[in-house]
């Protein structure tokens, strides 16, 4: 078994594994990450290999704080303001990459930009600290599959192929970080996520919409975050043979409920675990209740639409 409890010994061993170019899966406040030394291209290549991820997809470099991030990217006043307001936490900034950045080109997929985030989860922070290097960490799921929010989810996707999975309990937020690209003072929403649009806009004004040009983020691919079952969205009730993923108190015949009280934060935290559970129940089609589009509903609906998209 490759699932380890979080103890000082196991953290030290994980840090050794990372410094030696190996992979460690660990919790963050959003979802579980599959971490490698971001400065070591061989280690980063192992991430792509393990995930079966298309090579052109760049990774987020996780750092301890703003000061560490500034070694890798150029921060404008707007980028500073965002980092100061939301770090440590679930905001990823895509910024112009510094020529002397230690994060390797492979982690950035050769882009002139770099995605950086200072996570708040104590286990991920401890690992960054102990390893002493920035950690490249995509979500710890096989490419295209539902993200993992618990250590057993990670094990379901990878078996014993990973040397170490650190079990820090369920990831508290359950959806990935919000990604904002900042070019001078222009901020563009690349991925809706755990920080609501309104919180960011309160600071920097209306976010620009991504025009689809430039970087192909996997989270932007039409089909992504997908369970094995087909999804039917905005379903008021299940049809014969469907399993129902409900939201709110009205739900009848629900196999799972994202939040009986209609709380979007609770729904985000439950989303991936419920999709995995319905898959495990053998669902051919999962009918999903309508989810309001405000607050975290934007990120939840974004993931659901991609999970429902026709598969390549
Ligand atoms: O919450 C999260 O962000 C989790 C945890 C583990 O931190 N990580 C995560 O990583 O979701 P991943 O690899 O599944 O998604 C990272 C996204 C991808 O869509 C990638 O294309 C985008 O970040 N990205 C990375 N570098 C970028 C860049 N330079 N410009 C634009 N997007 C970038
Ligand atoms: Mg992912």
Could you please describe the fold and organization of this structure?
By secondary structure, the protein is of the alpha/beta class. The protein is built from nine helices and 15 strands. The strands form two sheets. Strands 1-8-2-3-7-4-6-5-9-10-11 form an eleven-stranded mixed sheet, with helices on both faces. Strands 12-15-13-14 form a four-stranded parallel sheet, with helices on one face. β10, α7 and β11 form a beta-alpha-beta unit. The longest helix has 17 residues, at 264-280. It is globular, with a radius of gyration of 19 Å. Bound molecules: threonylcarbamoyladenylate and magnesium ion. Magnesium ion is lined by residues 138-139, 147, 218-219.
How would you summarize this macromolecular structure in one to three sentences?
By secondary structure, the chain is α/β, with parallel strands linked by helices.
Radius of gyration: 19 Å
CATH class of the largest domain: Alpha Beta
Bound small-molecule species: threonylcarbamoyladenylate, magnesium ion
**Number of helices, counting only DSSP H or I runs of 4 residues or more:** 9
Number of strands: 15
CATH architecture classification of the largest domain: Alpha-Beta Complex
Strand content: 15-25%
The CATH topology assignment of the largest domain is DHBP synthase
Q: Mind describing the biggest β-sheet?
A: 11 strands, mixed
- Class by SSE composition: alpha/beta
- The residue fraction in helices comes out at 25-40%
The CATH H-level homologous superfamily of the largest domain: DHBP synthase
List the helices and strands and how they pair.
Blueprint: E1 3-5, H1 8-19, E2 24-26, E3 33-37, H2 41-51, E4 60-62, H3 66-69, H4 77-86, E5 91-96, E6 113-117, H5 122-131, E7 135-136, H6 151-158, E8 164-167, E9 178-183, E10 186-191, H7 197-204, E11 208-209, E12 230-232, E13 243-246, E14 256-257, H8 264-280, E15 285-288, H9 297-308
Parallel strand pairs: 1-8, 2-8, 4-6, 5-9, 10-11, 12-15, 13-14, 13-15
Antiparallel strand pairs: 2-3, 3-7, 4-7, 5-6, 9-10
This protein binds threonylcarbamoyladenylate (TXA) and magnesium ion.
Magnesium ion binds at residues 138-139, 147, 218-219.
């Amino acid at each position: 078994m490759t699932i380890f409890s979080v103890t000082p010994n196991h953290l030290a061993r994980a840090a050794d594994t990372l410094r030696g170019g190996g992979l460690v899966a660990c919790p963050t406040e959003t979802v579980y990450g599959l971490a490698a030394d971001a400065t070591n291209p061989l280690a980063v290549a192992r991430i792509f290999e393990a995930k079966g991820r298309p090579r052109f997809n760049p990774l987020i470099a996780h750092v301890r704080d703003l000061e560490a991030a500034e070694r890798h990217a150029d921060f404008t006043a707007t980028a500073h303001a965002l980092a100061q307001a939301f770090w440590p936490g679930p905001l990823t900034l895509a910024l112009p990459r510094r020529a002397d950045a230690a994060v390797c080109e492979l982690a950035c997929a050769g882009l002139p930009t770099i995605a950086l985030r200072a996570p708040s989860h104590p286990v991920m922070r401890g690992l960054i600290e102990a390893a002493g290097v920035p950690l490249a960490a995509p979500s710890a799921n096989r490419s295209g599959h539902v993200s993992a929010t618990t250590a057993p989810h990670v094990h379901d996707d990878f078996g014993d192929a990973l040397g170490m999975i650190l079990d820090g309990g369920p990831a508290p937020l359950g959806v990935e970080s919000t990604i904002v690209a900042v070019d001078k003072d222009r901020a563009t929403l690349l991925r809706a996520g755990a920080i609501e649009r309104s919180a960011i806009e309160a600071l920097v004004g209306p976010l620009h919409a991504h025009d689809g040009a430039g970087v192909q983020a996997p989270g932007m691919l039409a089909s992504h975050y997908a369970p094995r079952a087909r999804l039917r969205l905005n379903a008021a009730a299940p049809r014969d043979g469907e399993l129902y993923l409900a939201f709110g108190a009205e739900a009848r015949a629900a196999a799972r409920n994202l939040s009986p009280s209609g709380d979007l934060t609770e729904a985000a935290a439950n989303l991936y675990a419920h999709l995995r559970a319905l898959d495990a129940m053998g669902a051919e089609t999962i009918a999903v209740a309508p989810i309001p589009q405000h607050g975290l509903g934007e990120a939840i609906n974004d993931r659901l639409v991609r999970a429902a998209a026709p598969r390549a």
